[in-house]
Design goal:
The complex is a heterodimer of chains A (about 270) and B (about 325). Chain A has eleven helices and no strands. By secondary structure, chain A is an all-alpha fold. Chain A has one domain (about 70-265): Orthogonal Bundle (MetI-like fold). The longest helix of chain A has about 40 residues, at about 175-210. The radius of gyration of chain A is 22 Å and the shape is elongated. Chain B is mostly helical. Helix content of chain B is about 80%, strand content about 0%. Chain B is built from 14 helices and no strands. Chain B has helices at about 1-30, 35-40, 45-55, 60-75, 85-120, 125-140, 145-160, 175-180, 180-205, 210-215, 220-260, 265-275, 280-305, 310. Classes of the chains: A mainly alpha (about 270), B mainly alpha (about 325). Chains A and B meet through helix 5, helix 6, helix 9, helix 10 and helix 11 of A and helix 1, helix 6, helix 7, helix 11 and helix 12 of B.
Chain lengths: ~270, ~325
């Protein structure tokens, strides 16, 4: 962990992520205004004064909405990637462990899933199921299941031939126990590193869907939704799209930096590269 | 080479079939009846039944499936439920805009990304390398609608160098090019960021190889060693990434088209979503997946071209 933080890029990434997580956690105390309360008298105030980052077309405080919006981005990203890791990881492990025709069939299905452009797949799933938080999570995790299945499967193929797995089987352990106790710990770090990089993608996808109008419904503050509203008023109030954009960039960049650092730290071949 | 191409083509058939099946299922698990969705809640049962018959929704699901496969195989992607026009005609009308954008973005990606990646690898851990790494990480962290809006704010609204709206007159090359610059930069810079990263790490992998040293030792100029011997061997992962990137490029082009108000496939898909035009969605998804399968095929063929060993495998 200390070695990880000595890498300046990773350290910056950790700081960026920590700032946003703190902002989201303490939003009720940090936010100077109510994020959804409309105040027509104060509409489109430029940044400064009472509204540090300005106010939007309904007179809502941009800073407060960014702080509250962070919650949506984080919850959707964590929930969707966690479920993709569990489902995709299980599919990949079982597929690699069982092998043979089952493995071939499952991987063929995963390849089909991979051949859909992920944003388009997410777009259609949300459009069909309805724009709600749970459907966003389903859609985003659906786009990430196939990559996690692939990542989990590859090491299982060689691990299952190793002596400790054979020994476990010889001792009469069930397949489930061998998979969960003997194989899982060996692939966990690789899958989790991928998870941190995919978190960045999930944040981006959620923001993109919200920008298209398929995110969590207004008046709830989401970063993508704020960009969408801001974009409609871009001539009069550019700050409405600039600040949420910076927030999205900070979080995605931070997650990518942490993910990169984790990958370098767990892969000795990459040290210093 | 011909056998290699034929084998690749054959291998694409089951994938295409599976993709078509998935599209068929996905479009039909929608809650609610499309006929009611089109006509609205207050439609009479007779009107709903008539529309169902017209759309073929009253037939058994297997008949619909077989017809759908047969139509797709013939290259007939159906007609829009809402406009009643053939989907291919609607797509054909905007496809030049999408192709313009995609090719321009690819060119920016390749011509910025590859030299930047090679240069960074050659100057590993020097400031230029650190800068290239930082910039590429920032580049691929930008959601395209954010970078698009930032570019729009800077170059179209603040400095007024480029037009705000991207609906180009295709017959006027100057207009077409001018309106392409910002959208293509938006898409291309993200792509350049990806390519820089992959090229850099692939080059780092080959720089220490024996054949590089041998080439240098027998007196081949360093520049030539890098570009001919190095890059050709580092080429495979780069081509893979460019191929894989097409899926992301398609998603990103939807967002770019919205930001710059350009006609294109992306705007059609968003329109179809809003109007619940299921046949249009189905057709578009088939076309998208078809494109991706074709690109994967081209990627595979490029492997054979870059590395003759692949052909024999």
């Amino acid at each position: 962990m200390r070695a990880l933080l000595r890498n300046p890029t990773t350290a910056i990434g950790v700081v960026l992520c920590a700032l946003i997580v703190m902002g989201a956690l303490f939003a009720p105390w940090l936010a100077p205004h109510d994020p959804i309360e409309q105040n027509i008298l104060d509409r489109m105030q430029p940044p400064g004064g009472d509204f540090l980052l300005g106010s939007d077309v309904f007179g809502r405080d941009v800073l407060s909405r960014i702080l509250w919006g962070a919650r949506i981005s984080l919850v959707v990203a964590v929930a969707s990637i966690a479920s993709a890791i569990v489902i995709g990881g299980a599919i990949g492990m079982v597929s690699g462990y069982v092998g043979g025709r089952v493995d071939m069939f499952i991987m063929q299905v995963m390849d089909v899933l991979l051949s859909f452009p992920s944003l388009i797949l997410g777009l259609i799933v949300v459009a069909l199921l309805g724009a709600e938080m749970i459907n966003l999570i389903i859609a985003i995790s659906l786009t990430a299941i196939a990559p996690f299945a692939r990542i989990a499967r590859a090491p299982v193929l060689s691990l299952k031939e190793r002596a400790f797995v054979e020994a476990g089987r010889a001792l009469g352990f069930s397949h489930l126990r061998v998979l969960a106790v003997h194989i899982l710990p060996n692939i966990l770090s690789e899958v989790l590193v991928m998870g941190s990089l995919w978190m960045a993608t999930a944040v981006r996808t959620e923001a993109s869907l919200s920008f298209i109008g398929l995110g969590v419904k207004p008046p709830t503050a989401t970063w993508g939704g704020m960009m969408r509203e801001g974009f409609e008023a871009i001539l009069d109030a550019p700050w409405l799209s600039v600040f949420p954009g910076i927030a999205i960039l900070m979080l995605v960049l931070g997650l990518n930096m942490v993910g990169d650092g984790l990958r370098d730290a767990t892969d000795p071949k990459l040290t210093g590269s | 080479m011909i056998i290699y191409i034929a084998r690749r083509l054959l291998a694409a058939i089951p994938t295409l079939w599976a993709v078509l099946t998935l599209v068929f299922v996905l479009v039909r698990i929608v809650p609610g009846d499309p006929a009611i969705a089109i006509l609205g809640d207050r439609a009479t049962p007779a009107a709903v039944a008539a529309l169902q018959q017209k759309l073929g929704l009253d037939r058994p699901i297997w008949t619909q499936y077989v017809d759908f496969l047969a139509q797709s195989a013939r290259g007939d992607f159906g007609t829009s439920m809402v406009t009643n026009r053939p989907i291919l005609a609607d797509v054909g009308a905007v496809i030049p805009h999408t192709i313009d954008l995609t090719i321009a973005a690819m060119l920016i990606g390749v011509f910025v990304g590859i030299p930047a990646g090679v240069y960074a690898a050659l100057h590993r851990n020097r400031w230029i390398d650190v800068l290239a790494r930082m910039l590429s990480l920032i580049g691929l962290s930008f959601p395209v609608f954010v970078s698009g809006i930032f570019l729009l704010l800077a170059f179209a609204l603040h400095w007024r160098i480029f037009p705000v709206i991207g609906n180009a007159n295709l017959a006027d090359p100057a207009d077409r090019l001018l309106k392409l610059v910002l959208p293509a930069a938006t898409l291309g810079l993200v792509m350049a960021a990806y390519i820089t990263r992959v090229t850099r790490s692939a080059m780092l992998g080959v720089l220490g190889e024996d054949y590089m040293r041998t080439a240098r030792a027998k007196g081949v100029p360093w520049k030539r060693v890098v570009w001919r011997h190095g890059l050709r061997n580092a080429g495979l992962p780069v081509v893979t990434v460019v191929g894989l990137y097409v899926g992301i490029l398609i998603g990103n082009s939807v967002l770019t088209e919205i930001v710059f108000n350009r006609p294109g496939l992306g705007k059609i898909i968003v329109g179809a979503l809003n109007q619940r035009d299921y046949t249009m969605l189905q057709g578009l998804m088939v076309i998208y997946c078809f494109l991706i399968v074709v690109v994967n095929l081209i990627t595979d063929l490029t492997y054979g071209f870059i590395d003759p060993r692949v052909k024999q495998a």
